[in-house]
């Protein structure tokens, strides 16, 4: 079986973990600080490491001022954690459809919703149909494709809404504007990355919040550590917080991965380019496309095929020893846990729902060999024929 993903680990990661074990300090130690510094140097934003991307999204929303009863505009086409974090903050997602071809949240549709259903007041942006406050925008950089930040910043600033970006799939991607390059998430008020083993870099489990609001850093650090302010007394908790700390072993792996970032990024790009070439003569296959403003470090390599054939194609690939997965099927608003909350939303987001029935994620990782990619595409060719 050719696996869907596999982490790219070296002796550097193993040696750093051994250093942690030898030190006897397994939490809140020097590797955590070094990892955060490495992320800050790469993204040009201060970083707070946490136990997962979901934990980071929860903290970012709280730091952005999201409170129980608020609404947060977000996408239905994402891993469920982006909407779950909104619920964890006591708020409710207000879903808007996505755009083609990036499948990111569509800023034009968000703007249309705000103009039709919201009013900006001294107390905030009020959603007229419900009377609730729209507190933040939470777009997701799907599959690693960065947002059009010029468009999103203009929209967020015009409505006075914090831009909280789920960049959990976008480490190593860049937004390009003229001669300038900005790391994914770095132009948001808050952005969150995740480092599960199938991501561009891994810490095993873990995440990180970066922010343009440096005044929010003490709050983020306190909330991840059970509400204890930095420099506070032992067992003195000034806030109600969470155990969202990243351990030293995870930070050690993450530091090694950050130090290898350009090597890892180049390997991933080479694998994606080989797929692009191998799939070029299959007109039924829609390959991933990067917008003119995007330099994408793909999280997964997803293709789109006709929806009436997708499941049969996947079944054939599995029988040929090729592990594949749909992304994201069903979309969030049609997940069992969300259908109960939002039974009226099925059919409301046609672009997201159509994409969810078309997408196939192919095996994609840095060490995937060319002969295995040829085998994947041969099996795909058979299935389509």
Backbone CA Rg: 21 Å
Helix tally equals 13
CATH superfamily of the largest domain: Type I PLP-dependent aspartate aminotransferase-like (Major domain)
Strand count, sense and barrel status of the largest sheet are: 5 strands, mixed
Question: What is the share of helical residues?
Answer: 25-40%
> Class by helix and strand content?
alpha+beta
How do the strands of the widest beta sheet line up side by side?
3-2-6-5-4
Basic shape:
globular
Can you count the beta strands? 14
SSE succession: HHEHEHEHEEEHEEEEEHHHEEHHHEH
CATH topology assignment of the largest domain: Aspartate Aminotransferase, domain 2
Q: How far from one another are the termini?
A: 22 Å
Beta-strand percent range: 15-25%
Number of domains: 2
Average pLDDT score:
97
Secondary-structure arrangement, i.e. CATH architecture of the largest domain: 3-Layer(aba) Sandwich
Low-confidence stretches: none
CATH class of the largest domain: Alpha Beta
Name the descriptors.
385 residues, Aspartate Aminotransferase, domain 2, Aspartate Aminotransferase, domain 1, 4-stranded mixed beta sheet, globular
Outline:
With 385 residues, this protein is of the alpha+beta class. Helix content is 37%, strand content 15%.
């Amino acid at each position: 079986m050719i696996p869907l993903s596999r982490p790219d680990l070296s002796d550097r990661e193993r040696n750093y973990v051994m250093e942690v074990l030898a030190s006897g300090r397994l939490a809140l130690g020097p590797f955590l600080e070094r990892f955060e510094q490495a992320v800050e140097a790469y993204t040009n934003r201060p970083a707070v490491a946490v136990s997962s991307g979901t934990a980071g999204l929860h903290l970012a929303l709280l730091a952005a001022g999201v409170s129980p009863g608020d609404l947060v505009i977000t996408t239905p086409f994402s891993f469920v954690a982006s909407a779950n974090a909104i619920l964890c903050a006591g708020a409710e997602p207000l879903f808007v459809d996505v755009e083609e071809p990036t499948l990111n949240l569509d800023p034009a549709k968000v703007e249309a919703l705000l103009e039709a259903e919201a009013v900006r007041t001294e107390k905030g942006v009020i959603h007229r149909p419900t009377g609730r406050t729209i507190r933040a925008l939470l777009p997701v950089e799907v599959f690693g494709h960065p947002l059009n930040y010029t468009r999103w910043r203009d929209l967020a600033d015009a409505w006075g809404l914090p831009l909280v970006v789920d960049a959990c799939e976008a480490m190593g991607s860049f937004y390009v504007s003229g001669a300038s390059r900005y790391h994914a998430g770095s132009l948001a008020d808050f952005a969150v990355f995740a480092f599960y083993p199938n991501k561009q870099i891994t810490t095993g489990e873990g995440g990180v919040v970066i922010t343009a609001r440096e005044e929010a850093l003490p709050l983020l650090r306190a909330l991840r550590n059970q509400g204890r302010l930095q420099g506070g007394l032992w067992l003195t908790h000034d806030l109600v917080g969470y155990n969202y700390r990243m351990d030293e072993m995870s930070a050690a792996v993450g530091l090694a991965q950050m130090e290898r970032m350009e090597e890892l990024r180049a390997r991933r790009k080479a694998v994606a380019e080989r797929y692009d070439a191998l799939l070029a003569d299959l007109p039924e296959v829609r390959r991933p496309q990067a917008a003119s403003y995007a330099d994408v470090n793909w999280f997964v390599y997803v293709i789109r095929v006709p929806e009436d054939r997708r499941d049969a194609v996947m079944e054939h690939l599995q029988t040929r020893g090729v592990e594949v997965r749909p992304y994201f099927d069903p979309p969030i608003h049609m997940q069992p846990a969300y259908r109960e909350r939002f039974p009226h939303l099925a059919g409301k987001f046609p672009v997201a729902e159509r994409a969810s029935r078309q997408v196939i994620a192919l095996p994609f990782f840095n060490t995937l060999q060319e002969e295995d990619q040829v085998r994947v595409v041969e099996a795909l060719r058979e299935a389509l024929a």
